[in-house]
Design brief:
six-stranded mixed β-sheet; homodimer; 9 helices
């Protein structure tokens, strides 16, 4: 059973989408770790993550997804494609999607020039690519490797390397509108979904302001279920949780 | 360095998309493991996985994504939402998306009735829900827990529990058209992308029938890079790999 504190001040629904960019995610070479992390952070902030897409390093695919997702949700978060190599095309695609020119941002150029000078490294043309962003974009600080992410309109553009993505997201979180926290109360059920599906549907019907989810698990021999009651109204979630627990207690095992 | 055998018989490009369905993936409660598995299986079969989406257990969101993805790619694979509980709405949404009625499939009903009778379990209304699919759909065998997935048009509908998803996909793979295998040759590079971005872009330009990807890694202290040359033409991939290795050898470390 888990329970999250309510944020009485925030009542609006705030929504988000994520776009993970990179051929390596679709070839299987890299297993994404950023989607699950963003999901956890959004839930903790009371922001509804509504949709995730993964596309390849393809200009048109990125532009189309950015336009669709940024229009539909409060926030869009992207990961990947903002490094110094030729296959890092996210900054150009985002600029295209929002109708702005993509240029070497003066503040980012100064920041990176300083950074590489301090380390005695040449500020190569490749490294200068990391200063490119749509004109007027705001920076997202990068404590790991300095090259900033950026924010344009409601789009937050971050790196794909998980440690950098996480550091950038930590900098972004305090700037976001947060929604009313969702209370998520779970009940462990030793029976499979086939045993509880009927009564659980009746409980869902009786608790209309609670979303009840049922998550099967299979341990190689038999199924069990985790049942989760989610609501912005704590008392409503607790009432549904009580009803679920009573339903499970009433089941007579078949074997 | 990895290398995959060529499949000389297959030359067409075969594409795929995946749609993972479930509130639990977007809340962070469950970390998806099916996308990476499908990506690996597609790459091994020479099928280009082009796009992945994750949506919640929302009828309209599923219908919209199914229509968009099934129209655009050779195959669409879905995971999740075909269990016995009220929040399993994938079968209805798929039926709606393809314009067919969703009914209790007679063969699936017989299969499941037998299965539960053999185990001395009641074939509840909830369990009967698992026999629902669009009229005329073909079954995908489920050796783990019997309830079949299904295929309608180019859409392959599978379970979300990873062991069941994997077993279903094993049954689907032999039925798919496969593309010419992609040779993926990688070179480990001890330098960060900033050191190699310039010469690597030149190599990409000189090897136009090879897609060169650059994947940064950060170990907490410094960046290194894995560079991957991908092509359906083995000799072309090898030529690019040789050029990348020579480029790395020529770099004089800065520190």
């Amino acid at each position: 059973m888990s329970e999250k504190p309510n944020d009485a001040a925030a009542t609006d629904t705030v929504t988000a989408a994520m776009l993970a960019i990179g051929d390596e995610l679709l070839s299987g070479r890299t297993k994404d770790r950023n989607i699950g992390h963003l999901a956890d952070m959004m839930t903790a902030a009371g922001i509804d993550l509504k949709e995730v897409r993964i596309v390849s390093d393809d200009h048109d695919a990125i532009v189309e997804a950015v336009r669709a997702l940024s229009k539909r949700y409060t926030y869009l978060f992207t990961s990947g494609g903002i490094g110094p190599t030729h296959d890092d095309i996210t900054a150009d695609a985002i600029a295209d999607a929002v109708g702005r020119e993509c240029t070497h941002d003066p503040a980012a150029m100064a920041l990176l020039a300083d950074h590489y000078a301090g380390r005695g490294l040449e500020f190569t043309e490749a490294r200068q690519r990391m200063a490119r962003m749509p004109i007027g974009a705001a920076h997202i600080g990068n404590p790991v490797s300095k090259a900033p992410g950026f924010i344009v309109d409601n789009i937050h553009v971050m790196a794909g390397v998980p440690s950098v993505f996480q550091a950038m997201l930590d900098n972004v979180m305090p700037t976001l509108k947060t929604g009313a926290k969702i209370h998520s109360l779970s009940v462990a059920c030793p029976y499979g979904e086939g045993d509880i599906g009927g009564p659980l549907a009746a409980i869902q019907k009786a608790h209309s302001n609670v979303v009840i989810g049922s998550y099967p698990r299979y341990d190689g021999k038999r199924f069990s279920t985790e049942i989760v009651a989610r609501s912005r109204d704590l008392q409503a979630a607790q009432a549904a949780q009580d009803a679920i627990a009573a339903m499970i207690d009433a089941i007579v095992p078949n074997d």
